[in-house]
Amino acid sequence: SKTSTAPSASIKDFFEPLVVSNLTLGSADAGDDDSVCAGGSYKLQGTAVPSSNYSVVSTTWSVISGSATIANPSQLDSYVTINGGSATLRLTVETHSGTGTHCIVYDDVIITSTPSPSCLITGTDGPICLSTESSFSAPSSTSYLWSISGNGTISGSTTSQTVSVTTGSTCNQSFILSLTTTDANGCTSTCTKTAIVNDANPPVITTTLAALDHNIQCDNTASIASALTEVPTATDNCSATPTMHLVSDVTSADSNCANGYSRVRTWNFTDGCGNTSANFVQTITVIDTTAPTWTTVTGSLNSTIECSDTEALANAQNLFPIATDNCDTNLSNIVKVAGTFVASTTCANAGTYTNTWTVTDDCGNTSETFTQTITIQDTTAPTFIAPADITLSSGTNCYADISTVTTGEV
């Protein structure tokens, strides 16, 4: 024990002095506070400097606050990943001279995680028509880098906020558009968009149903030729000019009309991806509703004949009219209805014959009736043929035969 008689003694007066050698701790430097892009690895920049005659025994990184993953805690330039908004890391440096006391120093550093820039490609997912141009855009950032793979190419700049893509010519194939954005902190984000290039919609026929149908007279060759030049039209969501195909062209005779027939033509359309439209049908009906007409002038076969002129009557009866038809070239089926003699009420030898004709074409159209009137007349007065002259001679007593045994003829 130790005692003291001094009125102002303190507790330190009761301890024996301890001889301490002069110690220099050295230094630990964790580096400057810094930031790292979210999700990225940050390379720590620690340094350890021992005092004179001392050496560094160990360096250790540890997490003081926040959440972080240190790849190699004993390595001064270890990589670290910040798992939250920020983390405080401590570098602890231990030095030793080989004998005596170990010296420990430390330093802290704050590493802040900077959020990655937004990366979202705005634009259609498709289907997009073949060989067309579409625009895509990115959120506002400091810089942009676009790239593409698959069924499309970038046309124009690849470093602008918007990009133009020209689709390829292959049906039902997609392209992948990639974007890397970089913000003012140098942090990057990458995103992609997949869009399908295809045309799944068939062409649509714009010609109104039955708009090309026609009923045409058989002799109207100009109208028939004009109808055969008509074709339907169609539009397509992708192909500017869909391809027209003649599916069939069928001509059918009219069983009731040799001059008539129907011609039915059928088309459809296909686009660049092979989509086929509905069929469009045109029906051209050729008809014959025109009756034959007479080329013989009305009344031209009429005649007036003396009742005694049998030859003239026979010739008149053998006359017949001539007809023509718009389509039928063979009008041999002329039907004559011969009239009987109708005597005159004032002259038994006079009267009329009235003959009529009709003709029907191959489509059943019948002409108007052609009429012939043969008038028999008797305008010749009777004539007298006297008998031969006779000579009368008298006999005795001046007697003569004057009887009329021989007479003349009328």
Characterization of the model:
The protein has 410 residues and is mainly β. Helix content is 4%, strand content 43%. It contains two helices and 26 strands. It has helices at residues 221-228, 310-318; strands at 27-29, 34-37, 41-43, 47-49, 55-70, 79-96, 103-114, 133-137, 143-150, 152-155, 162-167, 173-182, 188-197, 204-205, 214-217, 234-235, 243-254, 257-270, 280-287, 293-294, 303-306, 323-324, 334-337, 342-343, 351-359, 370-377. The strands form eight sheets. Strands 2, 3, 5, 6 and 7 form a five-stranded mixed β-sheet that branches. It is rod-shaped and about 230 Å long. The N and C termini lie far apart (214 Å). Mean pLDDT is 90; it is low at 18-22.
